[in-house]
Amino acid sequence: MRIRGEDGAWRQASTQLATFDSMMTHCADPRDGVELLTLREHMRDWRFYDLLRTDRDAPARRPQIGTYTPVLDGDGANLAAALQTVREIGDAEGLRVAIDDAFPGASVEVVSNDGWFEVEMRQHGLLRPLRTAELSDGTLRYLLLVAALTSPRPPALMVLNEPETSLHPDLLGPLGRLIALASERSQVVVVSHAMPLVEALADAGARRIELEKSFGETALASDDDRPRWDWPKR
Predict the structure, then answer these.
(1) How far out from the chain centre does Cα 214 lie?
(2) Which of 66, 122, 203, 229 minimizes the number of CB atoms within 10 Å of its CB?
(3) Is there a domain that residue 212 lies in?
């Protein structure tokens, strides 16, 4: 592959790329491929949450080593550390409000045992706090989404794939409000089949793009939603 340098000369940027190779790793040369290098660094800041586990053996249900964690892991393993980091160096009040909005009167604490962190949740009517191993899938998922969306180090782009999975319908409103607040700091893309969540986001000013299947192919429902590409000149 050849790319054109700033002096106008064409140079060999890489040997032949294999089918599993990426231009981002093989052609991002700071001398001749500064655009690709810049794009790669931007892409490294993107976050995708589509594998947040809440099953019985989910990593988030187990105690984890406590350390400053401004970014929630893709599987949610560092939930306790992420929540405690928000509380110490992030928006602690926003975290409290997000939890109270979904679970009125409830509170979340992070307990430490010999350096191992674990989440405990106190709810009205219960005589003792529940640990993550005891939480329902929906409650745990909501806490994971709270940790991701209140990160003290917001990304340029965050993608949430079907965040409504396992959530009680009453939690979709609070989740929509939480996503709307997070969109003030990051561009948030939500893929959802839950119409109450979609409508809540639309009411908050989100752009709604509908997809449909035709003969096994997923496509935009309207050509008006098609992105307008404007390729810049070098």
Answers:
(1) 29
(2) 229
(3) no
DSSP bridge partners of 118: 111
Q: What is the residue-wise DSSP string for 36-96?
A: HHHHHHHHTT-EEES----STT-GGGS-EE----SS--TT-TTHHHHHHHHHHHS-HHHHH
Q: What is the pTM of this model?
A: 0.83
Q: How many domains does the chain have?
A: 1
Q: Tens digits of per-residue pLDDT, 190-213? A: 999 999 999 999 998 899 888 888
pLDDT band at 227 (very low <50, low <70, confident <90, very high): low
| Kind plus residue range of the DSSP H or E element containing 107 | strand 107-113
For residue 63, the enclosing domain spans 49-206
Within-domain flag for 10: no
**Over residues 213-218, mean pLDDT:** 82
Enumerate the H helices of 117-226 as residue ranges: 137-149, 172-182, 195-203
What DSSP character marks residue 156?
A: S
Residue 9 burial (CB count, 10 A) = 9
Asked whether the beta carbons of 93 and 77 are under 8 A apart, the reply is no
Residues 155, 3: Cα–Cα separation, whole Å: 30
